[in-house]
Design a protein that fits this description.
Length: about 375
Amino acid sequence: MTVTTLHLYRRSNLYRKSRKNPKGTGYDLKNNVTNIKWVTDLNFSAGELTFDLYEGDNRTLVIPYTGDIITFRWDKHKIFYGYVWKYSVKKDKVISVTCYDKMRYLKNQDSIVFKTNTVADRFNEVCSRAGISHIVKNAPSHKVATEICDGKSYFDMLKSAINKTYLSTNHMYFIATNYDKVELRRAPYKKLKIIVDSRTVISDFNYSVDIENTANVVRIVQKDSKKSQSKSATARGKGKRKAKKATEKETPENTSFSFADAIGRSPQQWGKLQITQNKKEKANHAQMVAQAKDLLKQKNLANKELSITTKGNVDLRAGNAVTVYLKDMKKKFNNCPILKATHNFDTDYTVNLEMKVGEQWLGNDSSN
């Protein structure tokens, strides 16, 4: 028999706390809860738990306060530790509650000058500033160049460093919450040794392929501008000579472009799909060619997405990978990256998964 536990703890200073109960006054809500849904998302979003509370027989309905702690366990698995962010009371005495885990505090904004360091260094920095418990499970060795982040969210700061690390190393790192601790992990964190099979456990699926953001020709551009000889006069006081200074003005006559191209084989099938990108600072021609080839590897792919509804499993969460077999199509996709997972803890525990096919952890437009 599956056992569900859902507790609410008052965070307010109006309620006494003790060493035995550091969270404050607690309430057991398992007999008053329905429609429990848990969402994990790889797109720099906090874990989300939503549920409805109803007034049971001879039970007074507990109204949650924003900021109260919510803990949720399912069949002895620690699923969620977070805080009430929103609640709404309805006419039929039902309270709908939305909670987020500690990653929600990475939406805080700040201004930081990062020196050349790793994603792990920046992760530790922003988590400390946000005041959340955290740990680095997988540390990259690649160092990201110095960066000025002015008035950006901690999520955006980490996203920038993670994307640059991915493009340089092809290793994807992501942030996840393990109950009450935020972790930096390398994807896939777990390659699940289970096959999600349309013959047995998949109740619905959708598989799509597109080339909307695909490119098979990458052009790296260097702009060359000759210095203009035009001069401007500056008026001085009476009896003083006019001072002249040279100005640089970009015109069609003194501006030209040089290129480095990388071309894939797919134009024969898809036609020419070209994108351009400015060269990296101080890059020579050979480095421009390398830049084009690296970007082509990221862009010269069809975008393949798979969404399924299947039997629930707590390990089917964003950042892990799972093998999927679709009987109708006679296709087997190995180690599909899970980008988003929505768990529905109802009478029948199910999960909706949004995945990439082909071990692509970022979208085709990630390098823009």
